[in-house]
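Issue: copy button drops trailing tokens. Both records pasted manually instead:
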Amino acid sequence: MPIVFMKPFSYILVPLLLLTVLVGGGAAQNKPCMRPLLDIFKSAVTATDGEKVVFNASVPLENIDQSSLKYKWRVFAKGKFTDLEGMAATTLDTTGLGGETVIVNVEVSPVEECTQIDSLSLEIRRKGPYTKADDFWWWVQLNQTNLSGYNDPQYEFLLDQLRERLKEVDHRLTVKIEIQRKDPMKQGLIIGYRAKPYDIDLVNDLVFFRAPNLAGFDILIEKP
């Protein structure tokens, strides 16, 4: 009789024990990562088309064998590295990337049973001597997120700053932002010229030779 009563209980107990082991094992495998465990640096704040920029990653932990770490570097959306893969440092060749903003990403493993990921952006200007036009577009790149926020209370103030920055390039240049467009993902940043005769060389240099590629804007020329 005691055996008859123990069998149903044993059928319940065994699955419960198995479930406990599985849950406990899963918890051990999903050990939370300690943060931050990864630092990433670049040798230049900005670059000019054709320059080489060094990126370096490090794991600031004393109790880890640094030689055991593997580094996987990626660049988005364009670009290529010139070094061997797997090392803590890599060099990005910016040739042909003038006007682009690239994202360099590094993945390091294994660290405390975790994969550590970090990234940095790099603005790359077009070739040629540095000019006031480059200063203007550098400011636009830094503020492009805020410039697209036309519902922000500070939006008009930012537009005034945009116009003042452009005056430093040439007081005859004009700029406005077009919000209502066929492409809802991009606003229009429109460059014009207020004097006569129309200086097409000045406008073309600003737009076609100096302007970067902005994710949220189409850079256009206002017809004279």
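Record 2 (pasted manually too):
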Amino acid sequence: MNTEIPDFLLEMSKQMNEQNNRMTADPLFEVRYKKSLVTESGYNESHWEILDDDGQSLYHSEKDKDYEDLAVYLFDYYNSWCNKHFDGENAPLTKNEFIELFCDDFDPDLTDLPDDVKKLSMQEIEVTVNAHFTEADAQAFIDRKQHDYQKLYIYAISLCYCNNMTKLRNWIKELKQPN
């Protein structure tokens, strides 16, 4: 029986034979993104964040260099809390005074925040969106769908001990245009 091999399989075979396997004998290219989940403090924690009541990050322990943006937010939305926090009820603090005091004095482990503002411990995980036999197909997916996800990237996993997947991968690699 002489069956014609579809062009996409021939192209896939060519790409698989020419691509960088990233030091893996039988790679499968996963498209992934990183996501943060709430966890218990000290339990597989990668960072912590201070969030408003809508879940927007006001401070990220790995990204923000100081507490100034958090102080501005607190002053703008929780002014009475700001004045109570620094005993400024009799003489209200100016925005600049509060920001300076807050940035010098804030201890994320000791300072109580307004009820609608929470400090949460976060665990970073990697989420696999899909997998491809070729890095070019993984990149094409990213180019086409990046707008639907957080920052996507390609990670090569090994098909070691995945016997049927390895056999399928090798079969595709061996495909040639019939003469």
